[in-house]
Description:
Largest sheet: 4 strands, mixed
Strand order of the largest sheet: 3-6-4-5
Number of helices: 2
Order of helices and strands: EEEHEHEE
Radius of gyration: 15 Å
Amino acid sequence: MELVKHSPSGGIYAATSDYIHAMEVRNPARFLFVSGTMGLDAEGAPGRNLSVQLDLIWSNLRAILADANMDVTNIVRLTSYLRDADYAEANQNARLAALGDHIVPTTAIVVQTLRKDWLVEIEIIATA
């Protein structure tokens, strides 16, 4: 499998350093489509605050990826659903900490449909 990043420099606004416009996946053997994942602990209880929920989300995503014999470097697309626009920076920082140098196309959307105690939900697509 080969990942080819696409962020054209002409005719479109520039991508920032923490995301790219597109990721081309060449010759993947497998795709993993992960449902929206919340900051819930093993008993299904939400973390007490945004920071704890973001930690739980990334822990949960790593567990799901590991179950498919993958890790965060297999992620090729990420969408975050934020209960409040004020969560954008913390969400971005958690994503950057989780992914390190692995930059992927990403979108953050503010939604009102999450339960009040679910502050962020993240869905991913991974390939191998």
